[in-house]
Amino acid sequence: MINFKQVNCRLGEQNFCYDLQIQLGQVVAVMGASGSGKSTLLNLLAGFIQPQNDTAQILLGDERVDLLAPSQRPVTSLFQEHNLFAHMSAFNNLALGIRTSLKLTVDEIAQVDTALEQVGLKGLGSRLPKQLSGGQRQRVALGRALVRRKPLLLLDEPFSALDPALRQEMAALVKSLSQQHQLTVLLVTHEPRDALDLAETVVFIADGRVHWQGPSQDFLQQTDTHIKAYLGQSC
Amino acid sequence: MIKVASSRHWLWFSSLSFCLVLLPLLLAMGAFSSYLGQAQWLTYMTDAYTWRVVWFSWWQACLSTVISLSAAVLVARALARRQSFVGRWLLLRCFSVALVVPSIIAVFGIILLHGKYGYFNQFWLWLGGQPQSYVYGLTGILLAHVFFNLPLATRILLQRLDAINAETWRLSSQLGMTSVDLWRHIEWPHIKGVLPQLAALVFALCFTSFAIVMTLGGGPKATTIEVAIFQAIRFDFDIAKAVYLSLLQMGFCGFILWAGLRLGKPIDMFVSLETSAKNMRPDLKPMLGIVSDSVVLLLATLLVLLPLLAVVIAGINPAWADVLLDLRLWNAFGNSLWVALSSALLSLLMASGLLLAQRHWRKRYASAALAVEWMGSVILVVPPLVLATGLFIGLSPHVNVFAINLYIVVLVNALMGLPYMLRVLSVAYLKIGTDYDRLCSSLGVQGWHRLRHVEWPILRKPVGLALALVAAMSAGDLGVVALFGSPDIQTLPLLMYQRLGSYQSDAAGVTAVVLLGLCLVIFVILERLLGGSDD
Prior knowledge:
Helix content of chain B: over 70%
Order of helices and strands of chain B: HHHHHHHHHHHHHHHHHHHHHHH
Strand content of chain B: under 5%
Number of helices of chain B: 23
Number of strands of chain A: 10
Number of helices of chain A: 8
Shape of chain A: globular
Oligomer: heterodimer
Strand content of chain A: 15-25%
Largest sheet of chain A: 6 strands, mixed
Structural class of chain B: mainly alpha
Distance between the termini of chain A: 35 Å
Shape of chain B: globular
Radius of gyration of chain A: 18 Å
Largest interface: A-B, 24 and 17 residues
Radius of gyration of chain B: 24 Å
Strand order of the largest sheet of chain A: 6-7-8-3-9-10
Largest sheet of chain B: none
């Protein structure tokens, strides 16, 4: 269980306040209008932003995650872009997930190769990011998430820059990898389709708070005005 | 195809600009060629002194470049890392000021600090040491070159480091990178692309530097080609030798420029530094980094601030009333102001004509448009002293060059400012062509209306910056003026140089403050008033 207890922060003019429980081992879609605080939720969990109240706690099981440095936290983040270092081969970009000095043992090299294979990039390890397509670049980043072996995968609109067909392909890959490796995935997305295809649960955020949480098949049927406005349905 | 320009007025304007740029260059080159027959090539080429000068030119430029760039990397990294550092604003302001400080002022400041009776020696004496004389020669030249080029290089490198996106920093903190990892995987790859070009730029500036070497070096041991040309004309009256040295200098500059172009795209010297949202880096906590960054930033601040402070303090002395009441000062002040504004305007005229032609031609005559671009770079092959020498030789049989010296100074300074003008203006200028030409012609907006409603609002900012730069540089010029200087016609830098040479340090101090003030006021007024506010 991931548990956000009174996690408050303020960015610019806006206040955010999260109280939230998420079951492990599932894919959770985090939805809401632009600027509502979807990414902020993920950034708090990853440690890129600190809560600003003393009573805030973020727990994974019984462990206080919010007290750890970003590199100590049990998460891997994937952004919309800039997930890779442009001057580094796909292999090295993955290898960074194991050791930032890039000095790997034979075992670890094998791990990287396996991960490359799992994300469908076998034989492309020597390519630079600019020699890969947008979808392939995101696959490299997914591969790095695999070698890092962290139980939580935080995806911040990772497919928004991709064409619809590629999007579906990537969604399927994320789904199968998360099942295979028992990952809990938090996926920030704009597409209701993503939520239905991928996620078991939807967390809907409005004005910096969790507004609604429930099974994803119920999401589209909600009569709540915020959700209807977001989905573009007239009230 | 839409007919872009209904009138051909631009052609007249552009032709005038072409003439203004090309005629002086052709005149200078023609003057050189008439001396080719007379030169005693063999004597010059076997002259040991000349070769020592050549060697020293390369050596000091190499050292200046290596020191400036290595220090700039450290300073830029420390600045990028400490975004909330309290002195950041002051340091960046000092760095901007260093771009427009006249070289004679920097030299004066450095002598006040490092000279035999300077602050450092007084401190050393107080500690019980013997006064050391180290500022004249290579050490002083390097100090002055670093004073000018460290800020320049730091600004360019800092802009590269500030451009690293937030995701990269987040990624690095999630992966738990150490300071060494960050340098290796993120910072070095981001700046290494710009380093060769930056090195070529700094090298070229140091290689052709004149006023600094003349005032701090100048002896037989520390002379550059640029200064040797001056000495050949003013002291030896050996024009053939000046021609030989000029050709040599042009050859070297051409080589440096060529090498620079081979190494990559030209870099933007006048970057604007906007600090983006605070980056989250994983290496802000370790004490070692905090201490080393503090030391680096403190030293950098002192390096730039101390000479300027020393100049200002030297300006506060009992002689101020005498100096300020002296008509010679105000005569020189007026001349400098006139040179600054005329050079800037003339340079703008030249650049506008060239860019206008480029804008019209690039659709149909790509090679002609490219030629315009090249003209800006060709100027860089002809350093100011070489061009001035050419004009001196070419004009002296026909007119009394000392009588029209200020006009020549304006012409040469305008030409020297042209590469900067073109660099600052071209992007905005060409963008108007691509973005608005069709819209304007479909709406029938042309002539004065187009200038007022379309061109001016877009161009005023770059025009303000370009004019400010060229004006400040021309006001502080001591090179061309020295070559053509006569006792009757003074400019502030020349007056400053003479007072420095005759050890009137009080008068020099006051003159320095007036000159520094003039340059800064010209710069601020042109950039802010003409360029408009930031919002």
